[in-house]
Amino acid sequence: MIPPATPKSSATRRATLAVVCVTTAMLMLDIAVVNTALPSIAVELETGVSSLQWVIDAYTLALATVVLSAGAWADRRGRRHVFLIGIVWFTVASLLCALAPTIWVLDIARAAQGIGGAILFACSLALLADVFEKGPQRAAALAAYGATIGGAFAVGPLVGGVLTELLNWRAIFLVNIPIGLATLLLTLRWVPESRDPHPRGADIPGQLLVSTGLGALVFGLLRGNEDGWLDPLTVAAAIVAAVALVGFVLHELRTREPMLPPHLLANRAFAGAQIAAFAISASLFAVFVYTTIYLQNVLHLSPIDTGLLYIPATAAMFVVAGATAKLDRRVPVFVSLSVSLLLVAVGLIMMTAVDVGSSKYAILPGLIVALVGAGVFNPVMSGLVLGESTSDHSGLAAGINDAFRQTGIAVGVAGLGTLLPAQSLLPGGSPHEFVTGLHQALLLSAVIAALGALVCVATLRTTRASADDPRETARVIA
Question: Which helix (H) or strand (E) holds 40?
């Protein structure tokens, strides 16, 4: 029998929470700030459409495919130790992004950044679970963590706009360096070590198969939109993706220590929660890329004006996330998640009001509604994961959720991008063609979010999670 952990000091808890929140903000910022800088990157590096989309997808895809292995590695080697490696890796990769001379170097550096991000994401909630015991203190930590996600998106577009317009798009990556160094020092000084006394082994074949499968899938979607769906490389990518992903499923069912344990997904409540995470990422957070391009390339807003326009909606998400984390004991999990996804769907439909000659404020009402939904969603989902992370396998629990989230963004950016004519995505492209495609992407995103809501009702409703403590869901579905 494993003895109970010794309670951590208040200084240790505060420092660990600060480190986790700051690194999480940095990781989320690296999605939000890049969105605003995409048109500038396209002009300076003279890139094509698919190469530009890889600036987003290289990061999120690498994060999604590595995070499960990173979680298992953290459980095995020590979460603090692996977290430190992640900070150094991410900081160095950020420097490489800032120095990239060509779009291909930038895409490769972004993939490297995603690997560092996967390591940090996989450890973050596990570090919190180690220092905060279940109860009011953990609820407060969860509120801070959820608000951090909202806050990063609240300031991300504006930060990206300011840095891009006043300095250069490369500054959006250079800003990570002092943040990385500061969190490195804090982690070395204050964050305690923790690990799983019975860790899982590495699943190298599974890692290779899922990375190949998802990479080929995204490559095929991006290339097909630009070069045609019958292009030999597009067809070959589709075949490789199908074979690798089927092979991954078969391997996970047979191997002794899978990176994605099938018994977890066999539980419909756990699987439903992950589908919900995928749905909000593949809809709202993926289409966010194209609304940013709309504001800059069609309405001709500057990067700073684009960032300022997002502030009311993303600030609303920040406020709602903090409030939801404090109120989640009173509302069943399936209600919170399904209602939040329905709000996202409604907001996305409202955003179809935009047109070539629209006011820049036409997008704002729908964006506010959608991001209020996201503000409800994030802390509730984090509560499920944090509840599971009280176990020794907390790295795995956090990793699974992050994998579904980031896979949703990667596949969503590529999939929704197929609805927009390739050349319309670049500066100087047809605004009418872009807006027509954007309307289709918004409607499809709304359908994805609504289906996610239905999945929540169908899978989480029968879980013995309670309005008294929704984190009971995490223990049941584990």
Answer: helix 10-45
